[in-house]
Amino acid sequence: MTQNLPKTHYLTDYQPPAFEVESLFLTFELLPNGTRVTNRMQVHRVKDLSAPLVLDGEGLELIQVDLDGVALMPTQYDVTDTQLILPDVPERFELEIVTEIDPENNTRLEGLYRTSGNYCTQCEAEGFRRITYYFDRPDVLTYFTTKIIADKQDNKVLLSNGNLVEVGDLPNDRHYAIWKDPYKKPCYLFALVAGNLEEVEDTFITRDQRQIDLRIYVEPKNLDKCEHAMESLKRSMKWDEERFGLVYDLDIYMIVAVDDFNMGAMENKGLNVFNSKYVLAKPETATDADYEGIESVIGHEYFHNWTGNRVTCRDWFQLTLKEGLTVFRDQEFTSDMLSPAVKRIEDVKRLRNNQFPEDAGPMSHPIQPQSYIEMNNFYTMTVYEKGAEVVRLYHTLLGEAGFQKGMQLYFDRFDGQAVTVEDFRNAMADANEIDLAQMHNWYTQAGTPTLKVEKHFDAATGTLTLHCEQSLKGQSAHAPLLIPVLFGFLNDDGRALPVRPGENSRNKVFETEKGHLLKLTTLSETFEFTGLSQEPHLSLLRHFSAPVNLEYAASDEELMMLASHDADSFVRWESIQTLALKNIEDNVARFQAGNGMVFSEHYQQAFQAVLEAKGLDPALKALAIGLPDLPYVFEQFETIDVDAVLQAVEYQKAQIAQTFSGALDKAYLAHCSKKAYCYDKHDMAARMLKNQCLAYLAYGAEPVVRAVAQYEQQQNMTDVLAALNALNHLAVSEREACLSDFYERWQQDTLVMDKWFSLQARSESEQALQDVRGLLEHPDFNYRNPNRVRSVLGVFGRLNMKAFHDASGEGYALLAEEVLKMDKINPQVAARLVTAFTSWKRFKGHRQDKMQSALQHIAADKALSKDVYEIVSKSLE
Ligand code: PHE
Ligand code: ZN
After folding, report:
1. Single Gene Ontology BP term (predicted)?
2. Distance in Å, CA 293 to ligand 1 centroid
3. For 556-573, what is the mean pLDDT?
4. Please, what sign has the CA dihedral across residues 767, 768, 770, 775?
């Protein structure tokens, strides 16, 4: 809590640790309200002969401290709110600290807490200090041994990291287990789980023929929903061996699913803890998106075992070292398991909808932040998703083989160490004997770069010049970024034209496995191409080869041609999206000028061509005919006029529904199937297109027929939810009937009920605001469950642009009150909710004022957490 201003931490203040921990023995005597933790460590000093011993600790009750077996008097140490300080310690010593904690009342879900009657821990980033006094920093690595003692009845299962080395019974119906982790690790990777969980077991045989025990622990009622997670785990293990040559290093791999979790999942060594949302699935309860999310998060946490755990971060400013790299790896995994083209587009959408706005707002930061108040606030789209894009730049520049050489050298050099993003870059550079120093600029500069391209063609000489300029908003002289641009030349029919770099461009244009690549290294640069018998059309930024905003004035005709013919599916998708965006932008201007709206002819033609294209993956069709998401549409405007944008988008949907009702209906029927649910890319693609058509049909003349029929079939959750989504914005009795049927069916299933809550929280209906108030009062609403809170308040602030931005300002007032309430319960979750306000300066007139007032109202609370304080204060600056 913030009586005085919270402290800012700076990257430049980094100091290596003064002490080394040789080993750590933790003993937990578990009780819901008074768990006793005994922490015995062997420590020696490595520098600063006179420095005191300073350990981190928060919310702990200190019982006893022994130094080399002798109990210390309270006068021999200092205890503050955040530290335990021993002014005088020998060069080498054993320290034993006993503390007590209260897991039952831990609603922050950091440290040791209870969830559904079980014990579980969350230590990243700085939660271990809520378990015991320790060096809570990632560059202090040691060997952990953990003894868990607990009542047998309520805690059949006792788990921690590493291998189980001893179990036994104790008096009074208690028992214990001792786990030993043979790998050194920082404390953020520590985990403990205890309770009455059931397990699903399987095995994996590594390529060196070792048998690994795989276990997924869940509440008994969920045993029938683990198969997909287990299959995903085995696929992850196999893929990492085949693509990265990385093999698992313990004899057992455990995953625990819990309902109360702040994030998606956590890569604790050998004992991952997962939000149950990323484990549990069966066709009746989980959608295609859920299945895909499970596969990718299971992969992500598994891949961390090498990129994060075996090689970890020196300090939290290096977070993208493990997260950017591991997201890149999980993206490649999904891409290899499903469709590369679809996955790339989904990832670009995610980046643009979430990361671009973050990077354009007051919380904007480089992928390597230079300072923070609360580290939890920096588990961001920027560090994760833009970080992954930057890793992808190395991959594009070096190719798969070069990238893998770099990875190999990275592990050879740094296994068992805590390192920096520079170490990663140097490994990539040294392994390939090239200079990558300029890549550093991607790590230290915030903001989405703009890449402006102009084309000149000299017909007389057959020479094409491309003039490229890069800029970073608000920064007049930024350090130039190394921007790889994949590209191609096309003739009027969409056929490839030859790419022949001229004299001045030979060393800047390359042939790569992903196609022609232009390497931009300065702020402004001209590239020449010769030997062209006609003026080519440009296909630029193929594969979205760099996380930039491309500014290139293509004509509608060019965009239509690219949408139908380009060799790169990202560019095809992007071209039709650009046509849609131009149409929407045009209509926003018309609306503002009081004129009627128009439905672009060129967009219509492109839409029809894609929808009816023969042999095109239905998933790509679905993505192409979908409109750009609202957050990305908002991003196109300096000042956001919510009413105008919503009207323009609404109009676009209605026009599509009306103009193409026949074709949409036909495509819908063509992709219906009676087949049993299967997690398979072809089936998923068919469902995606069918449901995109259904969504449009709901804006047409007969909005409810198909949706109600699809709901009633109850084929699988993907289709059921798509039907509800289609009905969700309509003021019809069918909507209420289906929603209450859904509630009756699924009342007992927490994850499915989250869907029921979130549907209503994002409804475009007129009483959505009122409904959200009702949801908060609903008996199944629960402030202590982050998923439930996010499914109402997170969804409302992030996805319900209509109700959240209601002209009355009531949406803002509602969220502000809820943030304040949540902050007392779980600051991390509250801080995420408050980000809905951060872009307030971008909004027009009265909305801007009202959002500002809401933020000021939050800021006025004298007892704000550091988490919320940081975001609110930076937003109001
Ligand atoms: N390290 C986790 C991941 O990326 C995310 C996480 C961070 C989970 C902090 C919990 C707390 O998979
Ligand atoms: Zn991660």
Report:
1. proteolysis
2. 15
3. 97
4. positive
ipTM: 0.99
Q: What's the pTM value of the predicted model, to 2 decimals? A: 0.98
For 861, list phi and psi in degrees, rounded to 5.
-70, 120
Please give the distance, rounded to the nearest whole angstrom, from the Cα atom of residue 512 to the centre of ligand 2: 29
Q: What is the DSSP letter of 351?
A: I
**Proximal ligand: closest to the CA of 325:** 2
**pLDDT at residue 48, as a whole number:** 77
**pLDDT score of 2:** 44
**Backbone φ, ψ for residue 328 (5° rounding):** -55, -45
Catalytic residues: 301
Q: How far is the CA of 318 from the centre of ligand 1 (A)?
A: 14
Span 308-335, pLDDT tens digits = 999 999 999 999 999 999 999 999 999 9
pLDDT score, position 469: 97
Give the ligand 1 atom nearest the CA of 301: 12
Residues with CB under 6 A from ligand 1: 122, 124-125, 262-263, 265-267, 300-301, 323, 379
Closest residue CA from atom 3 of ligand 1: 266
**Ligand 2 mean position to 303 CA, how many Å?**
9
Q: Which atom of ligand 1 is nearest to the CA of 308?
A: 1
Can you give the pLDDT at residue 477? 73
CB 326 within 8 A of CB 303: yes
Residue 756 vs residues 199, 583, 705, 721, 775: alpha-carbon distances, Å: 28, 33, 21, 9, 10
Nearest CA to ligand 1 atom 8: 266
Q: What is the 3-state secondary structure (H, E, C) of 184-217?
A: CECHHHCCEEEECCEEEEEEEECCCCCEEEEEEE
Task: Give the chain's largest Cα–Cα span.
Answer: 95
Q: What number of other Cβ atoms are within 10 A of residue 738's Cβ? A: 22
Predicted confidence (pLDDT) at residue 1 exceeds the cutoff of 70: no
